Amino acid sequence: MTEPLLRIEDLVVEYPVAGGMFRALNSVSLSVDKGTCLAVVGESGCGKSTLAKSVVRLLRPSSGRICFDGVDIAALSERKLRPYRSRIQMVFQDPYGSLDPHLSAVDIVAEPLRLRGIRSSRDRHTRAAALIERVGLPSTALRRKPAEFSGGQRQRIGIARALASEPELLVCDEATSALDVSVQAQVLDLLREIRSDTGLTYVFISHNLGVVREISDTIVVMKSGDIVESGSTADVLARPAQPYTKALRAAALDPTAMTGIKPRDVVSRLSLTRNPTATAQGAA
Amino acid sequence: MDNLLRVDELQIELITTRGVVRAVDGVSFCIDAGETVTIIGESGSGKSTTAMGILGLLPADLAVLSGHASFKDCDILANASALEKVRGRHIALIPQDPMTALSPVHTIGSQLRDAIRHSGVTGRSAQRTRAVELLDQVHIPRPTDQLSKYPHQLSGGMLQRVLIAAALAAGPELIVADEPTSALDVTVQASILDLLLELQERTGVAMLLITHDLGVARLMSDRIFVMKEGRFVEGGSAEALLGNPQSAYTKRLLDAVPRLDGHPGMEVPA
Q1: Is residue B157 part of a domain?
Q2: How big is chain A by its Cα radius of gyration, in Å?
């Protein structure tokens, strides 16, 4: 057995709230082998984005270990973390909010190259242009600013920027949720292609089980800060064991699977509850 | 024919900084009483513009509408006062984003009361009774307690229920629902769609549904129109259209939907 690229043990993240601490992650453990894709699914507030932010160390966990390539990065100081920053990259949910509106596409992608110590601006430009081509954008895109791109194109720029660091682990936080279905399909294709070319490892955060089935090898299902179910994606989706996973599975509406069923029959077949208290939760 | 809503050759041109854009280009459809008709399409296809145009909710100085739209044989496109009479009473809107559709500085009760007052109920206590009744209809737990709450104190799914309650205030014959569940989690989405189907069974209200989600469209609709670049590329019964799509565009949309597996969770519970 080789050491997994990412191994998380007993990870706890707590946020201070009025009158105490809110536990967003409650002793989460998981591992991701090199070259595979782990999907993290669950609803808003289940802790999946907190998990993503912990892995890229945008926040410091309260306790537990995040072992990346054998080194626990959970509590490393910012200085010691530096070499790991480029090896773990993130693609954000919102392609509008995560790109600097004042920079051109080529400058956005070139910035991590400067941080990696490529001194010559010509080299940076050449490499950034190659990355932009790699994610399927035309050469006319180089000088354009984020506002001049569509949502799908912006997400491609975000992916090119993440790839510029030549990461070993890419954390995608709802990277395709804001996109139209046909654009989503193209971005998923791109991510799959990059994986087969470079052997990149993914942690893919999503609430869309269809997307997760297409891209991931293994899956963890989260609820209220806990992992409630985990295993191979095919197994968990085919035979969900936990009621929560079953509910998520039933709520995913697949248009082709409903053929031959009258519209008003579907709800009863989904055995949805008409009692909303299951989903009723006053926000804090 | 006495269609509830009838739209003929609707054309909407929007005045933008880049010139005039024909967002809706000759769209015709009708909705009968109790029926659900869905317009599906991707961002920018003109589906929401169509709905907002019919409801007269596009900025008058930036949108030029032509064609015909009539509600119960009464022209609502040309005649602003006719539209004013039916809107909010006979036709109600459920907007897309429940977090921004409500005012953050007014209570649920006071915003619900506005809709109830518009429907013609007078007197504070009668309005309050009606508000509680409406919240109860959309299955909001402890309705009396919710009236004094502010939107930030409720979850997205609960806020969407409040908006549905407001839409129901006047007992409308047609509900226009613009991406009613796009901002919600899948299980919350399922419960809201279920609520809409239940209300429809009980009251027989017709629905014009705008969505980009083919699964939602299939679940809710009697008939579906597929919109692309301002035009309908295909239309028909939900079953026929998604089961056996004719146009290349509809096929492409269906192919792009990530599949769960060959025969997803449709097993009938014993």
Answers
A1: yes
A2: 20
